Amino acid sequence: MALQIKTFRISDSASEDAVNSFLGGKRVHHWEASYTGDPALGSWNLFVAYEEDHRRMMEPRHQNQQPLRSRPEIKKTPRIEQAPPEIASELMPLYENIRKWRNQVAREEKIKPYLLFNNKQLEELVKTPPSDLPALKTIASDMTEEHFGKYSNQLLGLISAASSAPTTA
């Protein structure tokens, strides 16, 4: 906001109160004062360079005064809880391993995890594990060619290692 300039002649308490009231919603950048006239009956000249301070304008200046402008109420959007995956409980370890791997890769790439594959695709990877690259590409269709080239073998390795691992009863 541009600076504005105002001059005041202060000769009594009423003009002093007027200056104080005026400066209530302003941010002063520079000021100068000089005394003119008779030493007993003279007045002060006040030069002020200022700009409007919108933060101050919203706050009451006196205890019983209402704010000049009301601040719009900011409504917080409630966080949407993730639905639990729709997979069998024996597949949860594989689901969690792939999810953690995806999140780690996303952190390293500085991208959102769903840009590799979303949670529904993750569920599908666990429910019907792909055995080759074309099957993986069909399920993880959100992956870019670059990410698919870099990480497809790791992802297939995670899935095949889990399916060949002995189960404990």
Descriptive overview:
The protein has 169 residues and is an alpha+beta fold. The chain folds into two domains: 54 residues, no CATH class; 76 residues, DNA polymerase, domain 1, CATH 1.10.150.80. The protein is built from six helices and three strands; from the N terminus they run E-H-E-E-H-H-H-H-H. It has a three-stranded antiparallel β-sheet. Helix 3 crosses helix 4 and helix 3 packs antiparallel against helix 6. The termini are far apart. The relative contact order is 0.10. The model has no long low-confidence stretch (mean pLDDT 80).
SSE blueprint and pairings:
Blueprint lengths: L3 E7 L2 H10 L3 E11 L6 E10 L1 H4 L34 H18 L9 H9 L5 H7 L5 H20 L5
Antiparallel strand pairs: 1-3, 2-3
Helix pairs in contact: 3-4, 3-6
What's the CATH H-level homologous superfamily of the largest domain? Answer: HRDC domain
- The radius of gyration over CA amounts to 34 Å
Strand-and-helix sequence, N→C? EHEEHHHHH
Strand content: 15-25%
Keywords:
rod-shaped, 3-stranded antiparallel sheet, 2 domains, 169 residues, single chain, DNA polymerase, domain 1, alpha+beta
The gist of it:
This protein has 169 residues and is of the alpha+beta class.
